[in-house]
Amino acid sequence: MPDPSQMLLQYSLRQRFRWLLPPAPVWHNPDEWKVDSPLGRWNLYIGSAGSHAPGYVNLDLFPLKNVDVAANAELLPFLDNQFTRVECDAVLEHAEFPDKIIREIERVLKPGGYAHIVVPFCHPYHAYPADFRRYTPEGLRQLAGALEVAAEGWRTGPTATLLVTILEYAKLWMPTRPLRGAVHIVLGWCLFPLRYLDAILLRSPNSRILGNHCYIWLRKPA
Q: pTM of the prediction?
């Protein structure tokens, strides 16, 4: 398992040189947000790391910049029925007990509130600090429990899977971290325009065969 202090150092370096980094090789499906789930007075974001999450209490495992609460999502330090909306973005694959996280989200969510869960399907290994599993939409539905499924689909599609795999494959040939970083920057800038092919591919039902990340919207019964 990676050393958390090394992970924090790497994150700090990425933030410092982010102006060099290419755009992400993924195109986000706009249909993902076609759910009537307005933010309330209290909203929770689980897993945005050090990214700014306006309108949310930002919770992460590590005390990074912009993180409001550092805690394990398997035991949320909040009262019952507190949040109108909960975002859980690319977290469950890193959790030892993902079902506990969903039950905690259910507990802190207000009746009538929504939870938006995003997880990878075809995506390279990425530890934070570990990487345990991958999900299909069917697998996400199994975790819903008493929460109602309001919508589901694919956030990122087959082209994203192809591009991130090419990037990681090319970096495997590099013997040092600086060389891997250079390959990521140069190849990433060359490849990222191809991500818009997913605007076409995600219209096909067969995109699920190589989908990159899937999502589900869950509603707590009123």
A: 0.91
